[in-house]
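agent> fetching stored inputs for the 2-acetamido-2-deoxy-beta-D-glucopyranose docking request
agent> found them:
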Amino acid sequence: MHFLAALIVLSTQLIIRTQCELGPCPISWRLPCPLPPWPPTYNMQLSTQQYFYSSEGFYNNQTLAFAALHGVVGIDWINHFGLPNHREETLAQQAALIKAVNPKTRVFVYRNAELALNIYDTGAKVMYDPTKTDWFVLYPNGTIYNDSRMIDHYRQDQFCWDHRNSAVQDYFVNSYAGSAFNQSIVDGIFYDDDGGIWQERHNYPNYTEAYRQAVDAAQQVSLNRAWELGLKYKKHAWQAWLTPSIPNIKDTPARCAEKMRTAMTMKNVPVTFPGMYSGSCSAAWELCKDLPQQLAAFLIARGDYWLFFTPNTWWKEGFETDYGVPLEDAHEPTPNVFVRKWSNATAKLDCNTFVSAITLHSSAKPVDQ
Ligand SMILES: *[C@@H]1O[C@H](CO)[C@@H](O)[C@H](O)[C@H]1NC(C)=O
Ligand SMILES: *[C@@H]1O[C@H](CO)[C@@H](O)[C@H](O)[C@H]1NC(C)=O
Ligand SMILES: *[C@@H]1O[C@H](CO)[C@@H](O)[C@H](O)[C@H]1NC(C)=O
Ligand SMILES: *[C@@H]1O[C@H](CO)[C@@H](O)[C@H](O)[C@H]1NC(C)=O
Ligand SMILES: *[C@@H]1O[C@H](CO)[C@@H](O)[C@H](O)[C@H]1NC(C)=O
Ligand SMILES: *[C@@H]1O[C@H](CO)[C@@H](O)[C@H](O)[C@H]1NC(C)=O
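agent> prediction call returned; pasting tokens
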């Protein structure tokens, strides 16, 4: 329910792609997702992304101010964990509090793709209904599979949706996800555990491979249905952004260059670079040693809907500078050296030395050195 490895995210995308009922995609590894239902932007600040976790009540003013600096943020289920229910409402209220500070910040709220959770009223309403035991994955002895745990002063029950049941699919799509779609303040959903129910379940009995695959495949169908319904409400899915890995100081020149070339081929699809689970630094920005190189890499490779997952504090100089718009595609003038000219800056990353430069045209003042 918390952290997926980058690898898992990638394999998930492949699964979703093959199960998708939306139109075919121009690039084979692309998620079958339409572009976000809002205009693209090259404004750097609006191209930042961050995800927010634990808080007993709503986030304090400091967290709120940090969140509201970003273009896109996600709010986790553990926001307002002091309350054992009503997560549909509290997440939307938290979204409203962020947008009150900055109406331009787009806010995604948490829903879990595999778990029925009693902290959501839409979950609790069906989890204890004796006529709905066939809505959930069961233990071999026929009782409901239940990863229960204590949060604060209450019990959080975690059942696993049995998405093979069409009534579950309808409810998951129309009520559980739907409760986010019909909130005007919410921009989309962060679908956690979208890769299937067996990734994190620590006490699962030995279900057969065929059973696991059937439940996981059905979950992908539910997710695609939810995705399509969301789009009708102009809501997006966090999972729409692909997460290629970004160069770092430990890369050999060849590996760094390979990552850059891969990223550059993804210009026309939505990407987070660095992505939430693939190369972003979760520390204060001053401690993120690769940050200047990664911002240069982002400006070199980025396309219309790209996002930069930020460190844990705000790098004002890097994220609020007006770089203008790209004047050309990225190119590699000499081996392993990547350059792109923008209207207000030129970004360069030399993978041979892992030295970068973002040179502003007006003042010629470098952003990152
Ligand atoms: C947080 O901000 C609100 C609105 O500006 C203000 O009313 C409140 O006093 C602040 N809370 C703290 C603890 O500073
Ligand atoms: C069913 O199996 C689960 C998992 O082994 C166990 O925790 C539970 O107590 C069992 N329930 C009954 C009624 O036997
Ligand atoms: C879930 O697990 C908790 C803790 O073991 C237990 O108290 C509760 O009765 C279980 N609920 C169901 C429906 O299995
Ligand atoms: C939003 O959706 C939920 C779940 O389907 C429903 O209970 C609620 O009444 C809806 N609210 C509005 C304002 O449509
Ligand atoms: C599940 O399978 C593993 C590996 O085969 C085995 O070690 C374990 O005892 C099995 N657990 C149960 C509950 O059957
Ligand atoms: C370049 O920067 C200047 C000054 O910061 C700004 O006024 C201008 O709009 C920028 N140009 C573009 C194309 O964004």
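agent> quick read of the result: The two ends are 39 Å apart (CA to CA).
agent> awaiting further instructions
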